[in-house]
Amino acid sequence: MRTLIVYGTKYGCTRKCAELLKERLFGEVCLQNAKSYRGSLKEYDAVFIGGSVYMGKIRGEVSCFCRRHSKELLKKRLGLFACCYTPKETEEFLETLFPRELLGHAAYVTAVGGEMHYEKMNVVYRKLFQSLKKIDGFREGFQEPQINLEEIQKLADAVLNKANRER
Known about the structure:
alpha/beta, six-stranded mixed β-sheet
């Protein structure tokens, strides 16, 4: 089985999640940044697509990849993931990140959590989060986001199980 994992990242967390996903798959697995991917999907049996989310939108290069390859993706085993603070239970949120036809075709769509890399953020984002953390109501409910390894495993399993059922 040949698998492609395409990701878009700003600070590196989505790449880390893509690498964690790769560890849970078998066969030949290729990891590609959506910004630089220019090939065809013909040689792959399964494709995973993931991206980081900022201000309610997935990375632009991920959206472009989905649009550019939508017809090919509908013929593949597909898994979609977002790296963000928003919990998986917010289905309406996930439905705004990827094209509807891909959401309907995917074996699994999920949010896999994330990490805050304050040191890599620009000054505006860093100051925004520092200010928010000082507000009592925000601080009480705020937890640093973490990568959800269980969701990454479920994502891998859903696409692998679909592959096994097709055999």
